[in-house]
Design goal:
About 40% of the residues lie in helices and about 15% in strands. By secondary structure, the chain is α/β, with parallel strands linked by helices. The strands form 4 sheets. It has a 7-stranded parallel β-sheet with strand order 3-2-1-4-5-6-11, sandwiched between helices. Strands 7-10 form a two-stranded parallel ribbon. A two-stranded parallel ribbon has the order 8-13. Helix 1 crosses helix 7, helix 4 runs parallel beside helix 5 and helix 6 packs across helix 8. The longest helix is centred in the N-terminal third of the chain and has 22 residues.
């Protein structure tokens, strides 16, 4: 039986993974861990343990007790500006913790699924293959590159899932993202400034959570690109949100990356080739507009 340890269990990906796990009655045991109290509505109190993930001694005791067969490692400092301001914290959580979990997984024959990012690339030559050289433009991307390299050097049963601009809905409605932010602001008839010169392949969180499960079940190894299959500017994505919910697009003002200080520390155009994930994992992304339809249904269900 699978015994799955989930780091960062209060996070966006982890909440969706647990939601799918319970909804589909998947066999196995879950244990979520986070530095803060449990905010994952899909984890019972017996399926959660509060722990400081930078305390490796305490984490090791937990691992020895729970004996995971699989680890889903989502915990990270992901805010670009926070990583710039606190590089030592980013190093500790994004690199050192990942290496610690990788070493445990290698030693115990446990499978590790690690979430990485398109920010490992500089955005000059996207869309990218898994084999393309990395060249991050910020501390966040640099720490993810180093974490990837540490895992690959260890070898063993480990999968690195890189993803792009996550969006979607979970039952914890306090969490936001590009789609929910744009929807909320425009529904309130508030003007919004949206970057027009950054291009991404936005990833529905439901698709990434499913990819994590596929990775675990198959004990996948190596790097996989997980994203949507449509290249959109941030502005284009927001305009599609407005169209779907019949909101006023005149409230959207396009702005440049330079206007908000992101010209030098964000990749301009990323995007992925996802053929490897399709072929090896059986990954099949959802079209952006279809995901909006599903998000609309989910939001209504969460509010019931």
């Amino acid at each position: 039986m699978m015994r799955i340890l989930i780091t960062g269990s209060n996070g966006f990906v982890s909440q969706k993974f647990c939601e799918q796990f319970k909804a589909e009655n998947r066999p196995g045991a879950l244990l979520g861990v986070s530095k803060s109290t449990n905010r994952n509505p899909n984890l019972k109190s017996t399926e959660f343990q509060q722990i400081d993930l930078s305390d490796f001694e305490a984490l090791n005791r937990l691992l020895v007790t729970f004996k995971p067969t699989h680890i889903l490692h989502t915990a990270a400092v992901t805010a670009v500006e926070t990583c710039e301001q606190r590089p030592e914290r980013a190093q500790q959580l994004n690199v050192d913790l990942t290496a610690f979990l990788g070493a445990y997984a290698k030693e115990q024959g446990c499978h590790l699924t690690f979430i990485s990012t398109d920010f490992v690339f500089d955005g000059i030559a996207g869309p990218y293959l898994e084999t393309d050289p990395t060249n991050p433009k910020n501390v966040y991307g640099s720490t993810k590159v180093e974490a990837e390299q540490r895992l690959l050097a260890l070898g063993g049963s480990m999968a690195i899932l890189r993803t792009i601009l996550l969006y979607g809905a979970v039952a914890d409605l306090q969490r936001s993202n590009l789609v929910l932010w744009a929807k909320k602001q425009l529904e309130a008839n508030l003007p919004i400034d949206v970057v027009s010169d950054q291009w991404r392949m936005p990833t529905w969180v439901d698709d990434l959570a499913q990819a994590c499960w596929l990775s675990m079940v198959q004990r996948a190894e190596g790097i996989f690109h997980i994203s949507g299959n449509e290249m959109l500017s941030i502005e284009e994505a927001v305009r599609q949100v407005a169209d779907f919910w019949n909101l006023d697009k005149t409230q959207i003002t396009p702005i440049s990356s330079a206007q908000i200080g992101q010209a030098d520390n964000r990749p301009q155009r990323t995007g992925f080739s996802i053929e490897k994930a399709k072929k090896v994992l059986g990954y099949n992304p959802t079209a952006f507009v279809v995901s909006l339809q599903e998000i609309d249904k989910q939001l209504k269900a969460y509010l019931q």
